[in-house]
Design goal:
The complex is a heterodimer of chains A (about 500) and B (about 45). Chain A has about 500 residues and is α/β, with parallel strands linked by helices. Chain A has one domain: Peroxisomal Thiolase, Chain A, domain 1 (3-Layer(aba) Sandwich), CATH 3.40.47. Chain A has 21 helices and 13 strands. In chain A, the strands form three sheets. In chain A, strands 2-1-9-8-6-7 form a six-stranded mixed β-sheet, with helices on both faces. In chain A, a hairpin with a 2-residue loop joins strand 4 and strand 5. In chain A, about 55% of the residues are buried. With about 45 residues, chain B is an alpha+beta fold. Chain B has a two-stranded parallel sheet. The model of chain B has no long low-confidence stretch (mean pLDDT about 90). The interface between A and B is medium-sized, with 25 and 15 residues.
Chain lengths: ~500, ~45
């Protein structure tokens, strides 16, 4: 019995000060070229929260615009804000930076996040009217520190500063005097990842009416590593996030694989549920500050605002087959193996050849969800339209296999592909952004199935030159698979006990 | 004479396009000498 997708959530955090102070493009520039024009200019090219909320791809990410609707708007999108756009989405929300900074403090259980008193006072008032922040979460907010105390931590104790609207409002203290793995910088990045993951979990529960006590396991699949000098990536973000989100009956573990990790994690979660190990498993990830403003130089050069100004996050709930929700078909898993080779044909073949097992053509899959990066971010930087490039390769393979005629290639990319909308946050745009819409499209009968493809740049870790990729298929529920055992185990035991009792009493009466 | 014979080649491949290793194979068959090859991820 295949596992099903019961719900999903998608969140973004607008983080303009983190673009300047924590994005690696900017921190690198500050190191190698501290007086550069780019660093002077960047603050003039940051968007406002309202602009970020109204941005069409962001509204798509949180579920208020469908990918089909987005594709009807001509680019550029940044100058066409959605009328009446709200921070709340069908699948999640877009949170402003100041609220998120306090959420980081809520997620910190080692008293490392120090925030300025007045900032806490002002922001707490905003979180008190946020529907997802209950007394338990609000009760974790500390009163705050004097500004001078925070400045001292930053100036004298290697704390990572936290800015809001250009002002120092807090810091993340180092968690160890000499261990670089617990430095203020690393703790900051890990707490950002944790807090954005927690926000996705809170939205998952709320948007899908989930009883959080039923969640038994969490697979976290971001690209950060937490640990100390003796176990750099020891983990475990999953359980740490589950703790703050109140998943009292859950444990969990972290799965890594660069951008392919969410797809690996979903296959693992679906398998755990299908095998009966756990009934409900969440796959989730927070985002990254390092990637903020990654293509900022090109955006400014081309007259664009800095478009990579949001941290992303998502969560998906996988459960037992309920006879209704879309199934994850684990019989049709594609994978790029060690021996696959690196040519584009070999890569795509390895990911879609799982269809051969079922005698399916490439065109038998209604939608492919690949690297769903927003092309408005990548095109000005010369990286092209990444989803489209992936669809062209799948289409080219379809031509090679004889599934479509060469003339149909352009139509294939439209019919079986989508315009990208996800923020360039590594693992966040990889395959998973479509899961929310995919569930709806399959439930409504708009499509019958979809293939989720995750690809990962393993070579960035300098452990192998290999690339990685995995894929799986989601399909409409075949129905009637709900476990409806006609007779329970308890009833069987009673029947056997009664039969034995009768047998024994018959024996006794015969002896008498 | 092959197209790239006696040429030293620097290769920068793209994860979502043509990976460095694949370009490397093509360059070798065209007689070029690969002096640097890497695959980059632009997203």
């Amino acid at each position: 019995m295949n596992s099903v997708i019961l719900g999903s959530s998608y969140i973004m955090v607008f983080a303009p000060d983190m673009v300047i102070h924590n994005g690696t493009t900017q921190t690198t520039e500050r190191t190698v070229n501290p007086n550069s024009e780019y660093l002077k200019e960047i603050k003039n090219h940051l968007r406002t929260f309202e602009q970020v909320v109204g941005y069409l791809p962001n509204q798509t990410y949180i579920g208020n615009i469908t990918p089909d609707e987005l594709s009807k708007y001509e680019m550029p999108w940044f100058d066409k804000p959605k009328d009446g756009a709200t921070r709340e989405g069908k699948f999640g929300e877009i949170m402003p930076q100041e609220e998120f900074i306090v959420l980081m403090q809520i997620c910190d259980v080692f008293d490392l996040v120090k925030l300025e008193k007045q900032f806490v006072f002002d922001t707490k008032a905003k979180l008190m009217v946020h529907p997802l922040f209950d007394e338990g979460l609000l009760g974790r907010i500390k009163e705050g520190e004097e500004f001078d105390t925070i400045k001292k931590y930053v100036d004298e104790e290697h704390a990572e500063p936290i800015y809001n609207n250009g002002e120092l409002v807090g810091c993340v203290k180092r968690a160890h005097d000499i261990d670089l793995n617990l430095s203020g910088h690393v703790m900051f990045e890990n707490l950002v990842s944790k807090a954005s993951n927690v926000l996705a979990l809170l939205n998952l529960v709320s948007k899908n009416n989930i009883n959080k006590e039923e969640i038994e396991y969490v697979v976290e699949c971001s690209e950060e590593a937490c640990g100390d000098m003796n176990q750099r990536g020891g983990g475990n973000f999953a359980k740490a996030c589950a703790e703050v989100a109140g998943f009292v009956n859950a444990t969990g573990s972290d799965t890594r694989g660069f951008c392919a990790a969410p797809t690996h994690a979903l296959i693992e979660a679906a398998a755990l549920v299908k095998a009966g190990v756990y009934k409900k498993v969440v796959v989730s990830a927070g985002g990254s500050t390092a990637k903020l403003g990654m293509n900022g130089k090109d955006h400014i050069k081309k007259g664009f605002p800095i478009l990579e100004d949001c941290i992303g996050g998502f969560a998906v709930l996988i459960g037992e087959n309920d006879g209704v929700n879309p199934e994850i078909n684990l019989d049709l898993v594609g994978r790029h193996t060690v021996g696959t080779g690196s040519s584009p044909q070999a890569v795509i073949t390895s990911l879609v050849s799982s269809l051969d097992k079922a005698g399916m053509k490439i065109t038998d899959i209604d939608k492919y969800s690949v690297e769903m990066q927003n092309p408005e971010v990548t095109k000005p930087a010369g990286a092209g339209d990444v989803p489209l490039a992936n669809y062209k390769m799948i289409g080219a393979l379809a031509v090679k296999r004889g599934d479509i005629d060469r003339k149909e290639l352009a139509d294939f990319t439209v019919k079986h592909g989508m315009t990208g909308w996800a923020p360039t946050q590594g693992h966040i745009p990889s395959g998973v952004p479509y899961l929310g819409f995919c569930r709806e499209d399959i439930l409504s009968g708009k499509i019958k199935n979809a293939m989720i493809v995750g690809k990962g740049s393993l070579f960035l870790g300098r452990m192998t030159n290999l690339f990685d990729g995995v894929s799986f298929i989601i399909e409409a529920n075949k129905g009637g698979q709900k476990k409806t055992s006609a007779i329970s185990e308890e009833q069987i035991k009673n029947l056997i006990a009664n039969a034995l009792k009768d047998f024994a009493s018959n024996l006794l009466s015969e002896q008498e | 004479m092959s197209l790239l014979e006696n040429k030293k080649i620097i290769i920068i491949g793209d994860r979502d396009g043509i990976p460095g290793q694949a370009i490397e194979e093509c360059v070798k068959t065209a007689g070029g000498e690969v002096v640097f090859s890497s695959t980059e991820c632009f997203v």
